[in-house]
Amino acid sequence: MSSQTTERREKANAPAGGTAGVIDAPTAKARHEISRAAAPEEGRETLIKLLHQMILIRRFEEKCAEAYSLGKIGGFCHLYIGQEAVGVGAISAIRDDDYVLTSYREHGQAIAKGISPDAVMAELYGKAGGCSRGKGGSMHLFDKDVNFLGGHAIVGGQIPLATGVAFASKYQETDKVTLCFFGEAAVNQGAFHESLNMAQLWKLPCIYICENNQYGMGTSLARAMSLQNVAEKACAYEMASEFVDGMDVIAMRQATQRAVQRAREESKPTLLEARTYRYMGHSMSDPGNYRTRAEIEKHQERDPIKIFTATLKEQNILSDKDLAAVEAEVKEQVEQAVRFAEESPEPDESELYTNVYANPLN
Amino acid sequence: MAVMTMRDALNQALKEELERDPSVFLMGEEVAEYQGAYKVTRGLLETFGPKRVIDTPITELGFAGLGVGAAMVGLRPIVEFMTFNFSILATDQIINSAAKMLYMSGGQFKIPIVFRGPGGSAYQVSSQHSQALESWFAYFPGLKVVMPSTPADAKGLLKSSIRDDDPVIFIEQERMYGMKGEVPEDADFTIPLGVAEVKREGTDATIIARSLMVPTALKAAEQLEQDGVSCEVIDPRTIRPLDINTIVESVKKTNRAVIAEESHPFCGVAAEISAEINERAFDYLDAPVKRVSGVDVPMPYAKNLERLAIPDVEQIVAAVREVAYL
Asked: Which of A47, B89, B234, B270 could form a disulfide with B259 if both were Cys (CB 3.0 to 4.6 A apart)?
């Protein structure tokens, strides 16, 4: 499969011609690397694992929507459907001991980083078996054992935090890197700019991944951002940056691998802009009246699972039988997650008062 | 014991804790090469180097959040706000990240961080640079709030704050950096958080005061002593958690309470202490609890107006006389 040019809403913000899918603004040209067509050069096992994770996340999120409508999941619930390639591709490029911080649209990334679907679903159900013991919910998934550092629900709030985690890796003289995911709307927050400035100034091993799904809740990019090529904003900080086709899991993996190498070997940050699209509303309570069905369907033509499956089949890496096996395994995983969540007890009422302080005094 | 200024006592605490624990580092605006806007961090860059004493850009939200992130994975940051007025830009990270991280992660991520710097009223710096913000921070479960009133307390409490595993808001009074007092020089000297101190014993009325209001209350107590009124002065030292028992025990003895504070009265710490006294010791009170707070206006610039905005000895004396029906 190949990277494609994502349609820009504003001509003024469109790339000045050139390679498809590459931000190519003249002022930034030198610093931007090219996200090449992503021909799978990986081993079969890796490719199938990527596909498996994307399908698992898709089915998991579909199940979340169902459970939400049944009142099993409360509060805000932001689904990742359509964006799976970004989290799966990027997280596949890091080590288990590397860190991930992200926003409130994080079920998929939590699973990709290694939190079990059981513990994620139980958290959404507000159960004691949840990865945050039922105290965080959909927007605050944490698991110290797999270095998944949340789930943060103030837009852009995780960006300074991730910068601090990367700072600590450098201070502690480890070679761990930090992935920081956020939506494009977070780019308008001061937290984004303050963090990128410090990260480049102090050469911190942080990889900032903007998941540009083109809407901040119901406000389109064109209505909210003066310069809509997010990757270009790295110029302001002399930071390496790259535009990536966020519907292409291999492109995401490879772009992240380049950024990881820069972070691990040179201790330098990178800004990746992944162009993607969310199919569902901002949250479960969003009917999506700000866009047309046709627009969604247009993006679904390049569905990340669909196009990756097609590529794997074309290259004889995946048979129909293999795909059926993956689907069957995923189905069982999701059903198991629901069973686990249903059976897990609610937190004990005494938990209301625990974990307020690590060193409680009075 | 050595006699030193509040500034030097704080400096000593920072130095000792940086020496003691390599995971402690200090960051903030002008803390390193400039030696600190108020010279609290003087000499630390030279001793500990730029890895551990870090000048930041003017980017309060950013470096406050960076500190919280570093604390998530094992470091113990000390973040200096040049003044707490600038912490207002960082409140999202202090409140939404630092205060809540342990809870919302189900106990997985403690945040051992100290946010420190000068706060309260300063000299003629007007509305945006002269304000008391402790009631803001004390409002939030998950934060601890500390306000020393002597050089010894400053040293002992800062060391405890740095060793504490929770986020601590440590507010130094801007007018008190030059105040001198005896300070233990033992590197193991600490003062536990959450423990009030009776700064002066008395029998007729309890004055609860913090930070700059402690020396003011002690002067008022001296003056009242000459009129035959014996005042007990209590400094909670830690606003959250609040050592309410020491306060209540004193009020049960004196049957009268005056609470002095620099901050605005509305939703302030004195209002909280007053409510606690009413809930716990109402039957012991011989008069309504009286607050002496900063006036409910932004801080003015003009010297005479500024003087009127901050409680002074006379106002505290008058308040005690009022609750004593004198």
From this structure: B270
